[in-house]
Amino acid sequence: MTIEDPQSAPAQAEQPSPVMPTEDRFAVFRNRSFLLYWLARFFGAFAAQIVAVSVGWQVYSVTGDPVYLGFIGLSQFLPSLLLVLVTGTVADRYSRRMIMAVVGVVEGLAVVALLALTWHGITSPLPIFAILAVIGTGRAFFGPASTSLVVNIVPREDLPGAIAWNSSSWQIASILGPVAGGLLYGLSAYVAYGTAVILFFACTALVLAIPAPEQHSAAKEPASMETMVAGFRFIWREKIVLGAISLDLFAVLLGGAVALMPVYASDVLAVGPWGLGLLRAAPGIGAILMVIWLTRHPVKNNAGLIMFAFVALFGAFTVLFGLSTMPWLSILALALMGASDMISVYVRETLLQLWTPDDVRGRVNAVNSMFVGASNELGEFRAGMMASWIGAVHAVTLGGVATVGVAALWAWMFPQLRKAKSLDGVH
User: Which of 145, 224, 308, 411 could make an SS bond with 91 (beta carbons 3.0 to 4.6 A apart)?
Assistant: First the structure.
């Protein structure tokens, strides 16, 4: 890869020889620190899925109006947007491990508040949104710290596999969590929330069990607006990083179809709630299968072209899903969408962690987390608004076509990314 501005990239001095990924797909789990880290992220994500399902049921039962469901995601996304300059700076100045541990406690206590609110009886969704904003604030700090910590605890040669498995923790939780949340909430809201509390506190315990790693702290830098926006400056300067992050943002923003799956399950495919569960699980299943493939066959050559190709495939499979009226074909299309998206996530995250210097990594990951959140939340809003105007099928299909167009446009706008061979800053 080439650097857009060689004079302004001190991080490149840190970059050693090219990464040679191990052929053992499970090698990284022999690293005790990573195993504890992976389990902590999985427990935290699993708990978050249980809370999401439970809160959704409660809000809809109280209001009877689906418009309030949109505020659930918004309540948790806004903190990451408003605090983007703070969360990354904190992750660079203080122990990322301790930030994760504190957030686990905060989220656990927030769910305890949901338990208390349920006990007293809920008559308005506003207190729920307030508690979700607290959880969202915690997640805003957790994201940059946890994403940056993996580089501190995993040897460089194991990092590509670690990033692939790292993504799998969320994918597995996104498959199993909603199912578990629905079953637990069916027993009782107290059982569901109580389980989430235990999982959040378990997340904290696992994080604290990780031996404190070496971290290049930015604490010596005087706190100023200049240091707080360093993440934005770095991303803008490094066109390869800018291209990768913005490509994912617009691809998911335009091609996301998750918000409209209930419409497809009910009106297009007529598969009912059970079929909706299969539709929701299909992208995660595809992503997990791709993770298993990537841990044995990591991307070593033509990384930029591979990323653009799979973003375009993500759009093409979105079109296939949008037009399909056969349940089996729709589920297959969604699984292929998840697998294609996983390639994009893998390339972006590996590139981001290897290309970014450690003392600014938290701030860069904070911006990346905000972009990912924006693509998901705003993508659902985009899909819902377009569906109300032109119908769900046209909204999904046109979104997929637009994603293919974005892949082509970005390949032209960011030649550095298109020509990138490897992910670690060398040709």
Answer: 145
